Amino acid sequence: MNAPLKQHLIDPEICIRCYTCEEACPIDAITHNEDNVVVDAAKCDFCMACISPCPTGSIDAWRVVMQPYSLEEQMSWMELPEQEEIAKPDGTGPAEGGDVEALEDSVERLLAEAHAGAGGKARAPATASKPSINLYNLKKPAVGIVQGNYRLTSESADSDVRHIIIDLGNQHFPVLEGQSVGIQPPGTDASGNAYLPRLYSISSPRDGERPNTNNISLTVKREEQGVCSNYVCDLQKGDEVRLTGPFGATFLMPNDPQAQIVMICTGTGSAPFRAFTMRRQRLTADGGERMRLFFGARTSDALPYFGPLKKVPDTILEKHLVFSRAEAVEKEYVQDRMLKQRADLAGLLSAPHTHIYVCGLKAMEHGVEAAFEQIAKDIGTDWVSLRDQMRESGRYHVETY
Length: 401
Ligand SMILES: Cc1cc2nc3c(=O)[nH]c(=O)nc-3n(C[C@H](O)[C@H](O)[C@H](O)COP(=O)(O)OP(=O)(O)OC[C@H]3O[C@@H](n4cnc5c(N)ncnc54)[C@H](O)[C@@H]3O)c2cc1C
Ligand code: SF4
Ligand code: SF4
What we know:
Layout lengths: L4 E5 L10 H5 L5 E3 L4 E3 L21 E5 L5 H6 L28 H11 L26 E10 L9 E7 L12 E4 L14 E4 L13 E7 L5 H7 L6 E8 L12 E7 L3 H14 L7 E7 L8 H6 L5 E7 L10 H7 L1 H9 L3 E7 L4 H14 L4 H10 L3 E5 L1
The protein binds flavin-adenine dinucleotide (FAD) and iron/sulfur cluster (2 copies).
Protein name: Benzoyl-CoA 2,3-epoxidase subunit BoxA
Cofactor: FAD
InterPro entries: 4Fe4S_Fe-S-bd, 4Fe4S_Fe_S_CS, Benzoyl_CoA_Oase_BoxA, Cbr1-like_FAD-bd_dom, FAD-bd_FR_type, Flavoprot_Pyr_Nucl_cyt_Rdtase, FNR, FNR_nucleotide-bd
């Protein structure tokens, strides 16, 4: 049996037949008839040169297939076919389908690992905006200019977490809250090979640090001996940085101000939640339903965005900032606070519009799962089946690393 293939397609319902992509393709993989513009699966090498010039985004369509759609089939389409459920080549279950997260194998592996804690295939919320992915790759990265690099943790804290703002100039780099970018550190590893890219969650909302600015921010923790985190944390204002992506098609926000959003994180896991909160604040005057944030750190000095978070009104964001090493306060982890809030969380687990997001270090998964197990018992249900059901409907998301 053949391996599944990601096929590059064009959405005929949105395409305006301007043929810009056809001109941009360096290897003539794009052609058209009087009805449709189509991509030849036998030729396309995923160079992405056609993606950013397309004025409609219709060129950024993908399906995982066992047998590529032929040119004739594509030319006859009025709309794109649904993503089919396909079996893995070894017959062990469904292969990754509709929510393709990334085309680069190394990035896809990282994302699959990061989402593994959800217990199955990740799905986007039903109302999430459609993300763009893979617009820039290692062969053709976007080039950003560092606008600022600020330390978020106090000088006395033992962790150095930074807020880095990157200006994208006039490049087309559309992002959604919850997506990540790839950064390839310069230089080579011990065997002389270029380093593999690392992923960083975008911590700004889709319309930029301030509304209508074409920039993104990242929240990066310096790892002792870490190759990429030290490179990023040392970037200076005016430096160039090469970005790939954007990546991620499932860890996204529902486009529904009435959705109940529960966010659980430690450390740099707060990055996507800063973006979620800013998006909600900008979108709805009254913030829609109140979001809940459970955020753990050793001390308040080591908690990124501590000051700005305190200023977000409680009507928009209910904050549970917990510290495991603070002086004169009882030691507390996120799961401890979740259990203190069990009545509220039990109510949320029973509600059909609740979306749960867990982000941060892998080590946090176990405690969070155990807390949910207990809370689910309060409503007479089994956590694993409830979690699986929520995940299947795009309402339970884990991104841990
Ligand atoms: C989906 C996703 C989103 C992410 N988002 C973020 C984010 O928003 N912010 C963030 O900071 N990170 C994020 N990460 C993690 C990030 O991608 C990197 O893994 C992280 O920055 C470490 O990369 P590095 O190159 O600095 O470390 P690497 O060089 O890859 O090293 C990995 C680890 O090994 C240790 N190490 C390396 N060399 C040695 C040595 N010789 N001896 C002992 N130890 C050693 C390092 O200290 C480090 O902890 C994310 C990861 C994923 C998958
Ligand atoms: S990705 Fe590259 S090869 Fe494929 S259609 Fe676009 S421009 Fe052509
Ligand atoms: S550039 Fe985009 S809109 Fe224009 S023909 Fe190609 S796919 Fe269609």
